[in-house]
Structure formats: C-alpha cells, structure tokens
Amino acid sequence: MEGLGGDGGAASPVNQFWHDVWRQYQYFLDKTTPHAVYRWIGSVFIVLIYVLRVYYREGFYIVSYGVGIYLLNLLIGFLSPLVDPEMEVSDGGPLLPTKGSDEFKPFIRRLPEFKFWYSFTKAFCIAFVMTFFPVFDVPVFWPILLCYWIVLFVLTMRRQIAHMIKFKYIPFNIGKQRYGGKKSSASSSGSRGD
Fold first, then answer.
1. Any residues with CB less than 8 A from the CB of 84 and at least 6 apart, and which?
2. Could you list the residue ranges that cross the membrane (predicted)?
3. Of 57, 131, 190, 194, which sits with the fewest C-beta atoms within 10 Å of its C-beta?
C-alpha cells in the first residue's frame, strides 16, 4: 500500500518535465515583475492581435463580451482598497486618512498591478485560443452586447467613483500631499527684501 498516492518513489519523467516547464515559466514571469511598461506594451500587442482576429473572422462576439465583463471585474478590484472602509470600521473611525493631519497611508489595492496585468493578459490569450474553436462562435447581434457592456461599465464606474469620493481616496499612489507651510514663508520673506 505504500505506492498509492505516496511520494516514496522517483517522480515520473512526464511529471518531472511539467514541473521543470512550470519552474521555467515562473522564472521568466518573476523576471518581468519590475518591467511594468514593457509588460503592458506586450499586453497591448496581444490585445491588438486578438482584436484583429475577431475583426477578420467577423465572429466570436460573445467571447469578447465575456472578456469585457471579466476585465470590468478586474478593474473594480484594481481600483478598490484592500480593506473596504465601508465594511470594516476600526475603533478610531475609518481606516483611510480623511484630513491633512492624519498619518499618510499608501493606497493598497485589493488586486495588485502585477496580478491585474497577469489576469488581463491571460484572459486575452485564452480568448484568442477560443477563436480557433467554432463552438464558441455563437451568433449574436453584437451592437446590443456592446451597448449593454457600455451601460454596465458606466453604472459600475459611477458607483466606484462615488465610493472614492465618499471615503476620500485616490487609487493611485502620488505620495503624501504637501501643505505649503515653509514654502510660502520663504517666498514671502524673499518679497520683503525688495
């Protein structure tokens, strides 16, 4: 019974091959982490290839709609804070700073940029592969899907922006806001000498 499900023996060559392929893939993925601009340029290139494929095939609109809904979900995660101030209120009040005297806390996303990029790119790669299988080419009237997606996008973004305004956070780290204490006194003292 020791051979069942145990790891007592040597790994099969097939398992070892896939393990090595996965490690190599992870190695290259880790190497791309600090190069955000180049990663996004590559992703835009993949999106262009997908768009050209859908345009020339004149189909797979339902796949594109599915990708659009998935990307909208990713965007919401990317723009949302890790801890929603509406759901979790600490003893001292909201967790995000609301006044200039509050301690600066950088915006921590629910979905980090790297995972957002990875999921974004993976979605378009999977959608591209799906365009080679006619079973996914469901005939639909694409203008209706496009209008429905635009309405969904506008309503979702309006709700997200209202949430940002209500809890006074910006989903981009621009550093701590500086208030003109010393700069204004230095410029006023320079004007007195004239």
1. none
2. 37-56, 62-83, 140-157
3. 194
**pLDDT top residue among 100 and 120:** 120
Identify the pLDDT of residue 55.
Answer: 94
Coil, strand, or helix at residue 109? strand
Token pair listed for 191: 């004007």
Torsion over CA of 100, 79, 42 and 37, rounded to 10 degrees?
0
Query: Which residues have CB under 8 Å from 74's CB, separation 6+?
Result: 111, 116, 119, 120, 123
Q: What is the pLDDT of residue 169?
A: 77
What does the pLDDT read at residue 42? Answer: 96
Confidence of residue 82 (pLDDT cuts 50, 70, 90): confident
Burial 89-107 (b: 16+ CB within 10 A, else e): eeeeebbeeeeeeeeeeee
Partners of 90 in the beta sheet?
A: 93
Question: Nearest Cα to 169, choosing from 74, 73, 79, 75?
Answer: 79
State phi, psi for 103 to the nearest 5 degrees. Answer: -65, 140
Separation of alpha carbons 148 and 32, rounded Å: 36
Q: What pLDDT is attached to residue 170?
A: 77
Backbone dihedral region for residue 156 (phi beyond 0: left; psi -120 to 50: alpha; all else: beta):
alpha
Question: 93 by DSSP, 3-state: which?
Answer: strand
